Amino acid sequence: MWVWGEFILASALIIISGSYLARVGDKIGEVMGWERTWVGLILLSFSTALPELFTSVSSAGILHQPDLSLGNNLGSITFNLFLIAILDFLSKEPLTRGLDPSLALSGSFLILFIFLYLFFLTLPLNRGILGVGGDTIFIFLFYFIALRMIFIHQHRNNEEVEKREREKGIWKFWLYYFILGGLILIGGLWLAKTGEKISRITGLSRTFVGTLFLAVVTSLPELSTTIASLKMGLPNMAVGNILGANLQNLVIPFFSDAFYRGGYLLSEISSSNIFTLILAGILTVILLLGMIYRSRRAFLRMGWDSLLIFLLYIWGMFILFSMGEAVSLIN
Fold first, then answer.
1. Which of 145, 202, 228, 239 is deepest in the core (most CB within 10 A)?
2. What are the extents of the domains in the chain?
3. Per-residue pLDDT tens for 152-165?
């Protein structure tokens, strides 16, 4: 059917643009003299999170589907953590064993944000400013506090930063960066409309479509950039990209809330999203434990932490799919 053709074309646009954008972002970081971990955490993650931003905002503001919007963000988080297992499989040794311990702070903030969402979804605030919920406003403001603390922590532990000579043509890399970001924007908007069509055709719940289909495809830029970073011998930048994108995915609902006109976004979310939040929290905790324990053992070319992430993600998607089928049968 043509809807699947649209899905493939929009996905291809995002994948191709995202892969080129990652190279440009890495070049900007190299020229500006930024640390690799910080490049992954901010620059690459911002560019690769653009599909999630525009897909979620358009799902909430244009399609008026809050579950599809938040489901995309939460699903992207779990899929991005699933990428850790893929990276570990491609790595020559257990991935988490060689990661910078400073990345653990980013993971800790990620868990804190997940608990905040669980709190606000369980006890809705139902108050806000100018149509934006107070819960998403609080999370948005707290995000910048977290970034500030991560920045200070990383530079405190990495005082000697390699100085690189700035090239005169830096402006052209920024130009490429924004052009490719615009292409990802177009693909993200297109993908949101396609996801809604797939939801109607298949009869699956919008939460499942947002969590699996849209989340996987909009996370493909993260897949291309993290694999490219790993091949360049930069695992810290690869994992920093994943953690940075996940933090941004938990801030995106603020913008979705601003465009949603059916009430406060988190007050309109179904309980099935709580399962995805819990799954994301468990996967993040496993990643942090792997970074702390630093096991040398591997099974099927993956560390035990990555293997556990892999199995739990597959199990979680099966459970979510079963929940989606149950909803479609009831309706």
1. 239
2. 2-157+171-330
3. 876 665 544 444 44
Structure tokens at 164: 């690189």
Nearest to 33 by CA among 166, 180, 186, 125: 166
In the chain, at which residue ranges do the beta strands (DSSP E only) sit?
128-129, 132-133, 298-299, 302-303
* Token representation of residue 130: 């100018």
pTM over 0.90: no
Strands (E), 111-165: 128-129, 132-133
Candidates 247, 230, 225, 253; CA nearest to 69 is 253
CATH of domain 2-157+171-330: 1.20.1420.30
Residue with tokens 């930069």: 234
C-alpha angle with apex 226: 299 to 318, nearest 5 degrees?
60
pLDDT score for 160: 44
